[in-house]
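User: structure tokens for Carboxypeptidase, please.
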Amino acid sequence: MNWIGLYGLLLLLLLFKNGASQAIIKTLPGYEGTLPFKLETGYIGVGDNDEVQLFYYFIESENNYKTDPLVLWMMGGPGCSGLFNIFFDIGPLTFDVENFDGSLPSILLNPNSWTKVANIIFIDAPVGTGFSYANNSQGYSSSDTKSAKDIYTFLRKWLLNHPMFIKNRLYVAGESYAGKLTPMVSMEILQGNEARLQPQMSFQGYIIGNGLTDTNIDFNARIPYAHRMALISDEYYESAKISCDEKYYNRDPNNVQCANALQRIQECLSNINQVRILDENCGGTATKLDEYFRWHHTFRGDNSIDNLLLPTAKQECQNIFDVSDYWGNDPAVQEALYIRKGMITRWETCSVGISYEENVDGALEYHKILIKKGYDALVYNADQDMAAPYMGPLTWFRILNLTIDDNWKPWLVNGQVAGYTQRYKKNDFRLTFVTIKGAGHIASWLVLSA
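Assistant: Done. Predicted tokens:
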């Protein structure tokens, strides 16, 4: 055997040991021609004996992959696939939803993809999400803390298998529910680097988009947000504020005055689309995301006022999940993505049946440590999103005693106000807060539909 053959064999053994497999995808069903960017998919094993196989999509920067940052992107839920981000958010592709007729949907390019300037790993996590699976039934149980550790292990193994990216500036990003996991995974990286675990990661900071940081803070912000957006009257708001003592979430169940005040508010908001208040409610017709949120809140055992806003997430009352679910379950698509056969029964954009324990209520303690270390942070919120209102982050910024370094001011696109920014600091820590005008819970939906 020559040296080249021996090297190849050793590489295969290394990948097998790490529970990893990967493939380069040049074409996709529904897209005409060759993809104009490098797409890689694969599995990486984590947990005991690699019992959990986490699936990922890696898209190389369309600019300069050698010097552009590497971003690990996590979607929320928990249970929503990284494919969601690729097609409906910041990725380079989008479905032709408008012309979807129930057959294989056509794929279009998104000119505003973040992959124009960054290498991005989109991960299906936690286990049971998307194409990720476990080798046994016990492996399907996960939680906030376990998922954070699994994702960190995934990233370590991914970088060992892609050593050309170890020196790239690394950012951890999470949207929606993953906003809580973002500082948790960042903490795992910090601790791994301090323990001199290999590879040493070039961690620079983190990004949170429309994220959950602290359940009490973020969910409690929905009522003040509704008042600020003129969805409830001054009288209703003041009544709830006084009778509930500004505690609308996890409130005292025996406080009858508070319950009555919130009931009046619920009647005002029950037909509002939570994820983008400007969108139609579509006559109350349930969508899969609607059903997902309904299951999630019921499972959590939240009080009725916390269920009052069940998002429809439609564009012109069309269920976008019908499109992605149809595409993801097509045998030709799964073959093109090199999906392991027989490991999942039915693919879902957002899986509602995963076994997951939300065992961390808030991530403020993680933020405090990261602040002391001086990492950079970007937090963005859409101003039409009531599921994770922008007032939540403004509250926890104050709790963390961040100092305003650059006052509230507009940022522009083509001469038009696209939102507002405010910069904070604390010693060497820098945080940029951004609002996105007119956008909803997944901020890029506005861009994709424009």
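User: Anything notable?

Assistant: The chain has a mean pLDDT of 86.
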